[in-house]
Design brief:
By secondary structure, the chain is mostly helical. It has seven helices and no strands. It is elongated, with a radius of gyration of 19 Å.
Length: 182
Amino acid sequence: MSNVATLVLRLVYGGLLAGHGGQKLFGWFGGHGLKGTGMWLESMGMQPGEDWARAAVASEFGGGVLTAAGFLNPLGPVLSMGSMAMAALTVHRGKPIWVTEGGAELPVTNLAIATTLALAGPGALSLDELLGTRLPRWLVVPGVLATAGGVALALASRQQQRQQAQQREQQIERPEAQVTPA
């Protein structure tokens, strides 16, 4: 029964996450495609937006497909952690945890599911089992550390871009600030 339970969890989580990535990549299910997603991300200070959108697509669509298929585990679940951490720390930051309040309830739940699937493995009803693919389980630790490092760098870059934008706005508002004494 645990293999059936793992299959259900993988298919639901991976399928929904791949669909979410498909919104960003192809405009499926009412999404806005890569260009629209890039513009939305730029509106949040993440520039260039299309590069950020591609990273989100790799995390969500790529990670979702690999997870649903149970292929190359733990790569799929670990890959999906990046976009979930970024969502929790940007879009949902500073709000109460509950989704009804705009909070990070769903990305945090998704992080827990991804962690569980990365640690437990894909189960017997997976492509990894069918094909005899075995990635070492210890890859979870460096994968999570690399994801955390990437998220930290992305957040630092975003903060730096915001500060630069604020400085440009201040210079536009006060052009006399640009004049320096000789």
